[in-house]
Design a protein that fits this description.
With 259 residues, this protein is α/β, with parallel strands linked by helices. It has helices at 10-16, 20-27, 64-76, 96-103, 120-126, 142-154, 164-168, 201-219, 221-228, 235-243; strands at residues 2-6, 32-36, 50-51, 61-62, 84-93, 107-112, 129-132, 186-187, 190-191.
Amino acid sequence: MRIEVVTLFPAMVEGALRYGIVSRALARGLLSVGTEDPRTYTTDVHGTVDDRPYGGGPGMVMKPGPLVAAIRAAHARLPQGSPRVYLSAQGEPFTQARARELAQLPGLLLVAGRYEGVDERVIESAIDAELSVGDYVVSGGELPALTVIDALTRLLPGALGDERSSEEDSFTQGLLDWPHYTRPEVFEGRGVPPVLLSGNHADIRRWRLAQAVERTAARRPGMLEALRGQPDVARDVARAVDECRPAGAGADEDRGRKT
Ligand code: SAM
């Protein structure tokens, strides 16, 4: 998959890509990421990319000229038809389902705004979709763009050491993830749930699913309700959902067990 990011801070994006799973995916050629800086397309000596808002008020707005030129240049490097996505607090919520859809694409353009945002005519003429990473405002679209890149990378075949990691991640089966433990067996007086030491994989799977369901019921009850109505849920997941006690009751009961 090829991704292009239009940003006033290319070094911020490139720096963050040097770590962890994304960096490994880049090294293996599963992903490539380019950047395009609108400042390259300015014509004045100061390299001006922003201006005061028409109608007055605080803050600055990203000028349309340099931004659209950068979007077109970056888009030309991508496979034809690659969507142009503006990261925006006002966009459609970015979810795991949306990440799965986008991860199927050969190319994706991400546009990071700054200041009060971009001139509306940029969105009208050069953007196909707007995505929000949550109901809060950050100072620029770079961190949201990196969030999208990271979430997509986890879904690219071969990006994770074990493909099951992303299959079991929160939201993938319509549930939150179950709790995880590693050595030591006792940490500051807290033990590991005994079933995880039993070696009985069927019991472990049942326990984990029950934990995932209880956790989802307690923390995101709406997700569980949505799952109940779905026809194509795995049989053991459906059973765990049916067996779930009322929201909150017994959730996370093994967490913090003292030995
Ligand atoms: N005035 C804008 C508003 O209220 O919607 C916020 C502008 S914000 C300070 C600057 C840039 O950060 C935006 O153009 C956008 O690219 C990015 N941004 C801020 N919050 C975001 C969010 N929740 N999701 C995606 N991008 C966001």
